[in-house]
Amino acid sequence: MIKKEMIAMLLAGGQGSRLGVLTAKVAKPAVAFGGKYRIIDFPLSNCINSGVDTVGVLTQYQPLRLNTHIGIGIPWDLDRNIGGVAVLPPYEKSSNSEWYTGTANAIYQNLEYMESYNPEYVLILSGDHIYKMDYEVMLDFHKQNGAEVTIAVMPVPMEEASRFGIMIADENKRITEFEEKPEHPRSNLASMGIYIFNWKTLRSALIAMADQPALDFGKHVIPYCHEKGSPLYAYEFTGYWKDVGTLNSYWEANMELIDIVPEFNLYEEYWKIFTKSEIQPPQYFSADSVIERSIVGEGTNIYGKVYNSVIGCGVTVGKDAVVRDSIIMNETVIGAGCELNKAIVAENVTIGDNVKLGVGEEAENETAPHIYNHGIVTVGEKSVIPGGVTVGRNTVISGITSASDYKDSCLASGKTLIKAGEQQ
Amino acid sequence: MRAIGIILAGGNNHRMKELSQKRAICAMPIAGSYRSIDFTLSNMSNSHIQKVAVFTQYNARSLNEHLNSSKWWDFGRKQGGLFVFTPAVTADNSNWYRGTADAIYQNLHFLKASHEPYVVIASGDGVYKLDFGRVLEYHIQKKADITVVCRDMEPGCNVERFGTIHMNEESRIEEFEEKPLQAKTNTISCGIYVIRRRLLIEMMEKCAEEDRYDFVRDVLIRYKDLKRIYGYKMKEYWRNIASIEDYYSTNMDFLKSDVRDYFFKQYPDIYSKVDDLPPAKYNVGARIQNSLISSGCIVNGVVENSVIFKKSYIGNNCVIKNSIILNDVYIGDNSYIENCIVESRDTIRANSRFVGEDGIRIVLERNERYML
Fold first, then answer.
1. Do A283 and B294 touch (CB under 8 A)?
2. Strands, E assignment, B88-145
3. Are A194 and A218 in contact (CB under 8 A)?
4. pLDDT per residue over A68-115, tens digit each?
5. Which of chain A's residues have a Cβ under 8 Å away from the Cβ of B283?
6. Is the ipTM of this complex over 0.95?
7. Any CB–CB contact under 8 A between B282 and chain A?
8. Are A393 and A358 in contact (CB under 8 A)?
9. B122, B7 Cβ separation under 8 angstroms
């Protein structure tokens, strides 16, 4: 009979609406990160590096890119005879068919998948954080303490603690209380959304709570286990961990990679981050190019000047173009003479010659100031920007735009320009 | 595809000097991210050849490491696959491969156990793109016994190091000279042949009976009047790696945008083993001009007109000019390197100076490397 000590369930169904147009057509875990990666590469690589070779990936929102990226798991060595990676979308049942209505509901709907591996422990992960973590060490901690549930926590500055789910633990790290986004936090241990459950505990909790609408781990399952008296422990993690849920935190996390010795080091030999590499050629720099404090992916051609930027694979930066403090994703073409300041340009975008992005005074975004802020220009995937236009800060552009969409060849700061269509 | 593939990858070449000490020519790194055998393997895969045998002999460690999985070239299949044949001692043979024909003869079981009617034989040291399906069509249309892929070399090219070919107006080969002292034509053989599988088996058995071991001398040249041997002319880019000068200039060719475009942008692609390296990183002080840099590199200095392979580290205030830096090289601060090929896994101490005064200098620096 098949027996896996620990299997992982990776929640990858969320939209990540605070990433704006970046997640208009793809789920957040499939958004590009750090030049050649996608966000989901980090938890998937952590799994295989920790010896967890059975991973169920729960998808729901816009799964196409995620499905093609994961495939049968070859890049992460998750193509296995027994176990490996399985993509688990919601499915129709003979009665009570429904979408995944909450994090725990998604896991509940896949009890059979977990059952088939007969695990001792189940690791619950989310697909939207950047970090390197050895889940085996966390499992050791779980076993040592005789825990039924272990929650990975991270010390955060006290003044920020009210943004998180906060765990209050005794000196043995046993959790005594928890608070969801407390106004006056009594601890600074924030939950990272990473849990190890004893399979039996998880199974009975999910079945008992099955009728709860929008069944959620933080709101329902953890409190239920606590009330039942299951020992809950907090596993303190002090390494690099970054939530990239907003455009600004996404931009910052990318920019941290270009430091001389970055806090999050991709160059370590023994904890590699794996990804699907479609583009293999080396990168080319022309005779009059300039590059400084940047990372660049495979197959990119740089004819212009690039400073403090993260450039993906297969990108072209035209002659005399200047790219500063920006993130350019795979296969995007930036025309000659362009000027980009603090821009996030998604995949397969074409920017015409002499376009200026991110210039002028800041102004609040007219449609979604809570998403588009910090002066960032965001360009959605497969967009087209015609040559010669000037675009202000806190702006967003998506779709095929033409010169007539830009009044006086200009898109003022704070404007939103979303058009239909995408380039093939 | 109605053919199987054979890649002859056993050769060594003293004209590669120190670079061949470490590896077979077919495992030579090319264009930043590839090995020379990737081109032939990718061409076979892209031509839908499903079953490929690689014959290796000389210093195959590096090549075997590169071929440790067949999935990169899409040969990990139930039907077909990638086979690596090194010489083996058997009940009735204890010889090395004594020549290309002998290598095929010693692995005749591979040919006998296949069912495809044709065989494409190619050397593993060419840098080119070719649809073998088109060569096979031509072979059938000409009713040829053997088709040899050939190419007119540019005037001024030293063709004496190749096999030269003279064809009649119907493209039938009338003259074939191996490494002639004075070449009469500038048409050379690319070392790529198409032949019917049964005919190949028959000819290899005959060669073995007569103690003949070389495919070119003992098959192509010996049988050129008896068998219908035709030339298929390819016009596109083709180079082979036979000397330090070839190796250097072929790598430098990839600094030209048309060559890069032809290999990297135009379908079909060339595949290589995936190394899962992070993006290349450029710190303050980096200045890169007309150069190729591969993934996993960290650059702090100046690089001009050079090709830097994977995972190299270039220290502060370094200057690298007109050079090729192979995989995983560490170059200490303030070093100056010009007209050199730096062997892979070298560790160059800080403040070093290496300059190729007349011609290309090969740098072998086996120093201790202190990892951070």
1. yes
2. 118-123, 126-128
3. no
4. 999 999 999 999 999 999 999 999 999 888 999 999 999 999 999 999
5. 260, 292-293
6. no
7. yes
8. yes
9. yes
